[in-house]
Amino acid sequence: MNITYTALLFLLLAITFSASGQEPISAITMPENLDQGKVELGKKLFFDPRLSKSGWISCNSCHNLMLSGTDNLVSSIGHQWAQGPINSPTVFNAVYSIAQFWDGRAKDLVDQAGGPIANPGEMASSHELAVSVLQTIPGYISEFNEVFDDDEITIDMVTDSIAEFERTLVTPNSRFDQWLQGDTNALTELELDGYRLFKLTGCAGCHNGPAVGGQAYQKMGSFNRFETENTAIGRQGVTGLRTDRMRFKVPTLRNIELTYPYFHDGSVRTLEEAVDTMAWVQLNRTFSRTGNEKVVAFLRSLSGDLPRIVLPILPPSGPDTPDPQPFE
What we know:
37% of the residues lie in helices and 2% in strands. By secondary structure, the chain is an all-alpha fold.
């Protein structure tokens, strides 16, 4: 995608939204038709560190539900203090994404859930080992049987359950959602001005839909070079195409004030700097201090109600459960 086409695309999107009278962002809604048995089982597995080789790392380690579904680190800490290669995106509202991971290598939440378990730099286990551990825990054996009506636990059951729990991790009822749904007093004039500027400058060309992002891939540095020491190459690592170099999934802007640091390399810690950086590298624009203040105010209005999670009581290990290996 060259610069001229990118600029034209953003302009056409802005004109389309304006002419249609439709807003590019839609309100978050609570998920429906969930299997509550899978949800409760998946919640246990999400918090259970026994899926890792060390017996210390769980899904919640990198996607901490007390920290808006992330860890607020530049990159996460894996097995034996391994430094992750990329910033961990929030798990909240991930169900609305076109795919999972920055490069989209997992097609959905089910596919994503199995990745960290077997990644040597993350949980450092294997699917076979994780399943064999679960099969030695009497509480899990009975719960898997109740949910899936099967005496044998499989990795597909594990990932399916974790994904079903993650589908509940949405954050509705932001003040911006309230405004979308007709409450004209939900936003301040500063926030409304920020939203207008957000649309006018083309930000909504990528950041749209219920999650305000997550629906497309975009080159990081569409107009001006994004300087980074991070070695991630984006979609090129999945497709092998040179044209996909530095193309990443557009991140969600929901709860963005809580999910710092920003970008795939975690190089920016404040919203103010993130807005200025994106305006320059993606849109070839420079915001005034007032313009920056307006857009940041709008972004803060996207913080919704975080789900209230009751921590699960994990079933105790059985006599045949292998000991964790945190130092190997």
